[in-house]
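Slide 14.
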Amino acid sequence: MGADEVFAAAQLIAHARTQRTPLGALPPQLQPQDEAAGYEIQREVHWLLAEQAADFAGYKIGCTSKVMQDYLGIPHPCAGGVFARGIHESGVALRTADFVRVGVECEIAVRLKHDLLPLDAPFTMDRVADAIGDCHAAIEIVDDRYVRWETLGAPTLIADDFFAAGCVLGPALPGAAVPDLAAVQGRAIINGTLVGEGAGTDVLGHPIHALAWLANHLAARGDGLEAGQLVLTGSLVKTVWLGAGDRVRMELDGLGVVEAAFV
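Slide 15: predicted structure.
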């Protein structure tokens, strides 16, 4: 794709997103034909959204667990952006009307204390572990903002940040004070009913492995992670789609509890 096509595709995606209009297939000449083109469009989408005072705050990693790979039919991780206005504290009440079709996932989130820049690649698990500052129990908020996501393909979903719509964070815990993230057991509870369970090992074998994948993925594109940025490492459970009035509670052993209401 040429630069003009990339920008035109990004404009259509950003407009649909800000207007909460379900996104259908892009015009044929603007459809990314591979994931590399999807990430090029995604970068432009980030710039367009940042111009609307949506400060870029970090990344989410999708398809890091088998349950999510099977659900979406994509056998490898995918990355998307997270914006500051979409980050909330535990206990928040959010309007379902602010989304097209809102869903939630149970996640381990980390905030970086050191940069992970392209010149320092490749990154191992040990190197990225040293960059982790705080950890959080997290609810990732996802939005099915598509006419039918199953027909769009991974490149277009990547261009639109792979369903990303924000997150809710539990209290920060210093990385040195948390247990082995691979051993964390997580539970998704909706309206008091257990609807899903998973473990840190479900996330590419270890959530820090997912972080290393992201750092190397970005480095290959000439991008990096910066101190202070947040990374959602991937869902321990299958996405749960919500309706108005639903109350969400995620419990992650050793990391704590995070809750939100959708009204």
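Speaker note: The chain has a mean pLDDT of 94.
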